[in-house]
Give the backbone structure.
Amino acid sequence: MEVLGLLIPVSLALGGLGLVAFWWLLRRGQFDDPEGDAHRILREDYDDRPK
Amino acid sequence: MTALADPPRASACPACDAAPLAQHMAGATAEAARLMIALPGIHCAGCISGVERALLSQPGVSDARVNLTLRRVAVEADPEVAVETLCTALERAGFEAHELDAGILAATEVDARGRALLMRLAVAVFAMMNVMLLSVAVWSGAEGVTRDMMHWISAAIAIPAVIFTGQPFYTSAWGALRAGRLNMDVPITLALALAVGTSLYETTQGGAHAYFDAAIALCTFLLAGRYLDHRTRATARSAAQELAALEVPRALRMVGQGRTESVGVADLRAGDRVRVLPGGRIPVDGVIRDGATELDRSVMTGETLPAAVALGDAVHAGEANLTGPITVEVQAAGRDTELARIGDLVAVAEAGRGNYTSLADAAAKLYAPGVHIISALAAVGWFIATADLRVALNIAAAVLIITCPCALGLAVPAVTTAASARLFRKGVLIKSGTALERLAEVDTVVFDKTGTLTDGAPEPLGLEELSAEAQSVALALAQGSAHPLAASLARGLSARAVRPAAVSDVVEHPGSGIEGRWQGQVVRLGRAGWVGAKALPTTATYLAVGENARVAIAFADTLREGAAEVVAGLHAQGKRVILLSGDMEASVRHFAARVGIAEVVAEARPEAKAEAIAGLSEGGARVLMVGDGMNDTAALTAADVSISPASALEAARAASDMVLTGQTLAPILDAMETAVAARRRIKENFTIASVYNVLAVPLAVAGLCSPLIAALAMSSSSLTVSLNALRLR
């Protein structure tokens, strides 16, 4: 059972990492144009200034 | 159009000149202007590349970024780049493009509320996942110190999370309580507070049951519903703002000797003189001080026949100038114009529409008091039976949690999100949350004629009966004018491979017609009185070649795309279809026969239109009004539900519940089908949610509801409801 003392903080930290990553993505505007981003990946011309 | 004659502007974006706010903002970043262009037709990866390439190849454009979700492109360009040139370049590349007023759109660009909700939802999901995981240990039988430790960790995660993520509910509940009302958020807030409070107390006492997982799961599911709801509204609002931004209200004010400056309509004062060029809309109410022309008053009256006006005649805002340039002395501008006053009538009528009770409101009204009564009764009953306050409070919390309207909170937003996404793809924009429910009940459909079932461009009739000579002279004259009748006549004749005759000295007499010389004779094309012909009762133009007999060329309205199909489809569904127009009896009857509408009301003034609708409603009919003009706004508001095409006047679109984003009317049928399906799904969802409550409440009241049962009931009901809504797509 001692292992819980390690596992619980680790799982919380990993989850927290995901939360911070999501917050960063939201701030960067990655959810502003979901439909456009889905299509952009299929473009044939090379996008040399991806945003 | 009027913008082409502009003197130097304050900012690069002509739209900004109209909006003082935008002008203020543009002043700060003068060097690189940000332009917005609407692209209603784009849909694929190829379109994104095509648009961006077409824009970047323009001189002065430094960056272009398409947003496919919003169907618009943001362009960074040098200040001297005009939006018109970019739009022309896009049209040449094959994309429909419209200038957008950046000032109106600036407010929607950063959707702060949506992001805040999404962030709360993310935190709630994170906390729920972790607390649920810890709860698994408790559910599977952890005891003693282990259970207490799990509870304490759960409390440490859940309490801050519930405080942070539940804020939208707390503020709304507080607002309702202060106003002395009960809404859905009151039982939610009470349940959250009671659940967290009793769980914390239980944990300090080493008790077996803690509802931290239920509390945070409640927040998550409810926030998901709120977010869906917000997103649907935000999409509709931003698209509606986009339509509003399409109209950039500007006027050319006269300054000194024949010079003009471009000013915002808001800046005009009585006594100013404004120049209105052919093709422009009159921005104010006033009197003509110079020039003569013909006006298209169809937006105000529904009449298709152009009216001739000259010096001293009164003109009104919203009328379109067809042939000659005129100078108008302003008598009333902005809020004081006739146009704006009709808009105010709409606002009055709108207040009366609040009577409609949506399905969700009806459910909440029954629900909120019921929940409180059951939970209070349970608490009182257990306190009397056991004389143990701790047990009684625990039971009350369990009842509140189990009955909390998770599924109810999701039932409507999930369905409207799915339905409006589906309709948006088909070209229908839903502005009001309850519009779909109202549309589902419609049994009578009333159409306006001009601009709604017709698309405004008249078609010349009987061209083949004209002599070859008359045809070529008419073509030569018609090519010399921008008048819509002349333009359509020129189009019709060119399509018949007629070659223009060698007519010299072509002069346009505004308000009358076109004159020229051909083989030594005077030739004229224009109004009956001016040409010297007898006027026909329908829209027509007249041709005179020397002293020969006058020839009349009649015109008929062109049907809007999809108009005949929609009328046929509505008849097939057993709906009553009525044509309600301000135009003359003869042309309305003729037109009704063409589209297949049997019931006709002609020569109806705006008030008569609204009265006709009100009369139908009193007779028990559920009326859908489809209209586009100023003269329709009162009727649009009076109807149970209303639709206007994208080409409609802003006031008409504002008065409508739904707006068609494309040229065709066909989506009306889709909208009615979807509305019926959506209403069925909402009712199913309410049934599902109630069934879960009916099954779970007795367990909770009996004290048999463990945190595991609460979590299962809540999650499964929310999931079933969401999945049921998704079937609509």
In short: DSSP finds 27 helices and 26 strands in chain B. Chain B touches chain A at residues 44-46, 48-49, 53, 65-70, 115, 118-119, 122-123, 126, 129-130, 133-134, 146, 149, 153, 157 (CB under 8 Å). Residues 1-31, 348-354 of chain B have pLDDT under 50 and may be disordered. The first helix of chain B runs from residue 14 to 18.
